[in-house]
Each structure stands twice: as C-alpha cells, then as structure tokens.
Amino acid sequence: MGRLGGLGRGQLVAARLPFPDRAGRGPGLGRDRGRRPRRAALRGPPVIGPDRLAVLHVVRQFLPNRGGLEDFVANLAREQVRLGHDVRVLTLDRLFSEPGLRLAARERIDGIAVERLPFRGSSRYPLAPGFLGRLKGADIVHVHAIDFFFDALALTRPLHRLPLVATTHGGFFHTQAHAGLKRVWFHGPTRLSARAYGAVVGCSDSDARQFAAIVPRGVPVIENGVDLAKFAGAASPAPCRTLLTLGRFSHNKRLDRLIALMRALRAEEAGWQLRIVGVPSDLSVADLEARIAEAGLAGAVSVHAGLDAAGVRALIGGASLFVSASEYEGFGIALIEAMSAGLVPVVHPNASFTDLAARHPGIALCDFSDPDAAARAVRGAYAGLAARGHPPAEDLARYAWAGVAARYLDTYAAVRRAA
Prior knowledge:
The relative contact order is 0.13. Helix 2 (68-82) packs across helix 13 (401-418). The two termini are 28 Å apart. This protein has helices at 9-14, 68-82, 148-155, 157-160, 179-194, 205-211, 255-268, 285-294, 309-316, 333-341, 351-359, 371-388, 401-418, and strands spanning 54-58, 86-92, 94-95, 98-102, 106-109, 112-117, 140-144, 164-167, 199-201, 242-249, 273-280, 301-305, 321-324, 344-347, 364-365. It has 13 helices and 15 strands. The protein is globular, with a radius of gyration of 22 Å. Strand 1 (54-58), helix 2 (68-82) and strand 2 (86-92) form a beta-alpha-beta unit.
C-alpha cells in the first residue's frame, strides 16, 4: 500500500525515466561488495538448454535482509540459476530495518546478479525512479508484491514493452490500518496496473480469491516454495514446554498476543518458555523487550534477531511447539518450515492458515485474541505430544522448490507467447 499522498501516476510520467536499450544484457557487475549473507549451496547440476531466459526479479527488499519475501525471491532465483537461466534481482540499496546502511550497488550472490537502486520516501511505497534503465536485456520481468515497482512497471510498459509477471505476496492487506483507503487504492490504481501484467499469480488461495476481484482473466495459484531441508527434523526429540515463533517483527504478527499467551500459560505452570525469532520491522528488539519486561516475563520470553539458518535451527532444537498469532499471511512459509522441523503448530485462524489447516490436519487453530483459550490449545497440543509422541510427518513435497520453479517457468512461457 503506498502513501496516497505520494507519487501519483502523472508524477511517474513526469519523472523523465530513461528509455531502456533492449539489445544489451545489462551492466556488468562491479567488484564492490555489500554485506554478504550466508551462502546456500545450489542443489544438483545446472541444466542449460536452448530456452535459457534472462529473468529479472524486482523486489523492494532482498538479501542480506531476511524475511518471507526475501527468502522466496532468493530461493526461486537460485533454482532458476541451477536450471541454467540468466537471473538478476533489482532491489533497493538500503534495508528498511537498517536505513543508515547503504549496500553495494552491484553484487553477485549464489550466481544471482543483484543490482540495487537508491530510493526516497516511505518504506510502504519507496520511490525508485531509476528502475527503467535497469530493464535492458530482460526476457521477462517478475515483480514481487504490490508497491511502487508494481505500479511503475505497469505505467511504463508502453516504453519498455517487456512481458510482466507479478506475484501477490499478500498484497498490502497485512493489517487493518487504513483499511478504507487500501480498498480504494486496490480497486483503483492497483486494478489499472494489473492490466499491464501477463499474469498476476496468487501465492495462496486466499490471495487468489482477493485479487480475482480486480483481475477478470483469473489469478492462477502457485503456492510458495519452502526450503524443506533447512530445518528438517530439527525440533527437540523429547517433548518440552518451549514455544517458538518465526517471522518479521511486524504489527500483523500480533506478538503482543503471544506475550499475553505466555502470561496465561505461566499463571498455571512456570516452566513455559517462548522464543521470538525473526527480523525487526514495525517493532524493534528494544520494543519487544520492553513489552516482555512490562509483562513480567523477562526470564521466560527471549528475542532473537538476525540469526542465520544454523542459529535458527539450534533454537528449534530446544522447542516442541510452533505458535503464531498472525492476523494476516500471504501464504505461511514459517508454518511450513515449522512442520518440516517437526514442531507441533498452534496458530491463529487467518485465511492462509485456515486453508493450510484444511490440507494438513496436524495444524491446530485457535483464537489468539483470547489468551486463556490460546493457552488451553497450547496445553492440549503439548499433552498430546507428551502422551503419543510426534505425529506422523506431514507430506510437504508440494512445496519443494523444484516444482514451484517449474510452474513459474511455465507461466513465463505462456506470458511471453501472449505478449
């Protein structure tokens, strides 16, 4: 959701954006380096054929920032590189969580060429008018999320004439803040922008239902891929009263309700612990620690920010249950990761989690707005685990990245044929 008083459509035209030269393959990569994330190994040999594509992913935040959106783009891009495609990521040059740190303008991560643009304005709708000169050489442009890039690439399509694909990633409905303005924007500018896209792909059934209202030709669903090996089998082998939540520290995650849950749990038994794992967003580590201290839970609830996969895996090894009070999810990557680890999930019934629970019976739904009811659900999940041991592993093969990447390549091919 952009700032409605920010850059309008007329202002985008007036920005005098440079016309791209489609003949080239983009600028070469410099030797400068930003802060490097942990390198993930590519699985399997490259498969290079005559249909090699130059794919440009456009996303507002990317590595080294960590979160569901960033991990999605990184994993999809890695799989496409493994398949022999020429993959670039165009993103912003500062992290919203660390706005004072300017990252390298160009970098290569796991075979992915990363190009970063300066921007101004809000993190909700960051303005990066230099994007158009970075499109040259692309066969397909894949835009992630609904923001400035989604609108600007649509508006300038008569100039760049490139086939466009977008993935919704929850749109901008993660919270109820400014709900009326969001609906106006969604049914106005977002509807108009969507017309320029050869495909608007929903990452969940709930996203597809929502976007079908503004995309009459239909919204195909390609569910998010998940790295099923990253935390596979990492949960504590012996039942323990330690809960873990994983995700961005944003308002929609309702971490305040998890703190309230812990007060209710510990009112009856002092052994319960909660690990809050993720990256700062709307809330900082200091914000969360202040709320934890105010609730009298400083020894029971801990915050872990910016960990790499090995660090998260180590924390999962001391936990038995996954909890989430999130009111809105584009898909629910963290929930699938938790199940792959063997954590027993107890989560709030938002639309995405409800859809996943219909498919995976091991997911327990409860209303986290009532801390006592949530505490009863958590105690029940723990009692079942203690009495019967870990339930049979869920079949999560549909979320493997190889299949997800193949479905996106099929989508690219269809959009290019129709362009």
